[in-house]
């Protein structure tokens, strides 16, 4: 029997107001993810002043490594191009040792002299002659020192910034659990570092089908914290009578635009800092009637192994039929 998701959530929260995680209760967007799988918020900010939007430090520390390397390389080549054009404008004849006979050969002499000046390498084959070229070379040396200091700081910041690398199963399950059902998903640490005092918080977001108001409800977990995190961890929310998920079907989740929000807090022993990891599951990523596959093994040396390639594997499982509340009352 399908149960109205709005009514179910109301009954489970009769004595308290629904929690608001910060997204608000009247979001206009529907059928879109509020929290992306990489932990970023699916929100586009508009109307931000340009001087506030162009925060290059946060931009360069947040982009991926390939993009960061391309940005640094592009900046390095652009600066060298600008200064080589200045040397060409003043005259390559003021660069002692430049023996380029043609325009392109002269340009390459100016370009590589700029690269040597910018990096303060100075091989000595080419040197500036005259006050104008010497001033340009001095300014370029200062720009090089400042530029590489900034690049080094950004590089250190990217390496020193603690980030948890936790793998999440691609789907979450409604699985058999003891004598009933449970909502569950699986996580594992993708690195060899040690993570301790790991805590998890799971919340459910649903939209009332009639009022359109979005509500947020924290789910009680079988275990919300563990002291050590060396293996995988299957996080379980038992679907008891008091659970917001009690009686819900896949169609209820779809109608209510359901989304599960996951926040994990753990102490990273390598950085000696607390790291946070976020994720979410949409209603279409919920699999009914399944259980996760066993991913542990044992090496020849007797050491426990865990195959993270199988973290997403699951097998079909029969779900117990929930009792009919009407029959329970009539008896």
Descriptive account of the structure:
By secondary structure, the protein is an alpha+beta fold. It folds into two domains: 5-43 and 164-330, G protein-activated inward rectifier potassium channel 1 (Immunoglobulin-like, Sandwich), CATH 2.60.40; 53-160, Helix Hairpins, CATH 1.10.287. The chain contains eight helices and 16 strands. The strands form five sheets. Strands 3, 4, 5, 9 and 12 form a five-stranded mixed beta sheet that branches. β10 (259-268) and β11 (273-282) form a beta hairpin. The radius of gyration is 30 Å and the shape is elongated. Mean pLDDT is 84; it is low at 5-18 and 327-331.
β-sheet strand percentage:
25-35%
Q: What summary fits the major beta sheet?
A: 5 strands, mixed
Low confidence ranges: 5-18, 327-331
| Structural class by sheet pairing and helices | alpha+beta
Rg for CA atoms: 30 Å
Q: How many helices in DSSP terms? A: 8
CATH level 4 superfamily of the largest domain: G protein-activated inward rectifier potassium channel 1
Number of strands: 16
Mean pLDDT: 84
Helix content: 25-40%
**What is the CATH architecture descriptor of the largest domain?**
Sandwich
Quaternary structure state of the chains depicted: single chain
Report the CATH topology name of the largest domain. Answer: Immunoglobulin-like
